[in-house]
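MODEL INPUT / OUTPUT PAIR
PAIR INDEX: 1
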Amino acid sequence: MHTAIELTELTKSYGSRRGLDGLSLQVRAGEVFGYLGPNGAGKSTTIRLLLDLIRPTSGSARVLGLDPRADAARLHRRTGYLAGDFVVDGRRRAGECLAFLARLRGGVPAHRITGLAARLDVDLDARIKSLSKGNRQKVGLIQAFMHEPELLILDEPTSGLDPLVQQTFLDMVGEARDNGQTVFMSSHILSEVEAVTDRVAIIREGALVALDTVDALRARSSLRVRVTFAAPVPAGEFAALPGVQHVSADGDTLTCTVDGSPDALVKAAAQYTVTGLHADTQDLEELFQAYYTGPRAA
């Protein structure tokens, strides 16, 4: 499968601090790729390196088969980019701003701009400086999508948007994928990651800690178990079982988490009289939080 983005041992240092630490990953052409991590993890640094807004300390990046530095002009024509906080000349009207950016990209049909503006409820006659952050972000979305680029690079694209507009954005991302475009987006909104991404990369302290589909990552999550017995049981007996962690006992109720198969726990519990059993997996928020705070290993 053709690769839209390929990073090889990409490193960016800011003095004694590393923004990226030997990051290697591939983004397939035509997929929606979620890029997650806590604040300061290196998400925006990665995006700026992809666009040659900053230069790497070492390692390499190829975007749409091009070198972001040597082929910057060609690459930017084929890319749509939205920064986390879209900033342009506030004196211009939104429509004037978009028309100017459209000319820079070789021209965009006027109906494409007005159509996106209608979907996102953007007043094209309003001056940029009069717009709220959310409405400025809508203008940013229009300029990123309007020329139907091969690659969309979106840094926290729904920042400041209300839930209805967030859903419109998700629809636009789905349409871009159906059109064969590649979408690389960082996000803190886990519901949108689950809704539209094909794969997810999680970085922490500039290093990759997980890369897979959301479903596959969820399959690795811990199982939370609560067992009620007819009488109190020895918690230590269960704490020694393989994969069983965080064991606590309160009277006749034992709670724990299980990594992997719960077979050993079930067999141990069967030695006693079980009166109740409840088990569920971590929700998405807990799953990603575990990657953010747990051991830094892919």
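PAIR INDEX: 2
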Amino acid sequence: MKKVYVDVTASFTRDGVIIPQAIRWEDDHIFYIDRVLDIRRAAAQKTGGAGIRYTCRIAGKEAYLFLEQNRWFVESNR
């Protein structure tokens, strides 16, 4: 498992909550987030590091997206 840093398009609520909308992968493929299921501070168990973990539904599957300080990453087997 490795950290893959990605570009994220996000919106902000008037309360200051960041809501990710889409992820741009290393190969420039864009994955749209169907729904954010959970937001919490957590550690990345498989790759190390910590930050805000977004549990997202992307194309019908759950995935974790992390905001670590000012960078976004996902854990990947690729």
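PAIR 2 NOTE: The two ends are 8 Å apart (CA to CA).
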